[in-house]
Amino acid sequence: MNHSRRGVLRAGGVAVFAGTLTSVLGLAMQQAFAAETFEVTRSDDEWRKRLDANQYAVLRREGTERPFTSPLNNEHRAGIFSCAGCELALFSSKTKFESGTGWPSFYQPQDNAVRKHEDTSLGMVRNEVHCRRCGGHLGHVFDDGPKPTGLRYCMNGVAMIFKPQLA
After folding, report:
1. Which of 47, 96, 136, 149 is placed for a possible disulfide with 85 were both Cys, Cβ 3.0 to 4.6 Å?
2. Which residues are catalytic?
3. Are 73 and 102 spatial neighbours (Cβ–Cβ below 8 Å)?
């Protein structure tokens, strides 16, 4: 019985250490991201006035919209998906695909449109995607997408606006 208590205590100590290390590393990554500079900057009040409540929650507070709620899921016209915060062109409709996840998905962003950083929230490691011009949170990128890139940029529809291609 003493051996099993010792094992439980040792395992608990390792878990606390690992949790603390993950929190410290996550905080360091958030601070590094916060130090990043962007071409478009606004005060928090300016962002609140410019964006609706859902856009603000996602773009400025790294929220996530509920799956299958974005009208952009069913957007199939030719055009460009742009950042709702600064209108930078992010994704071409040519790279959009149906992932079945409930969020608009793309296999490739426009050149120099997004930046990525490691996100350790929710107890896992993911690659967060944000607008390179204003820093707005867009979603995450995963390595389970279609060819030719094998990537799935799983984006919050509320973080984007669609601009149809004129014929």
Report:
1. 136
2. 154
3. yes
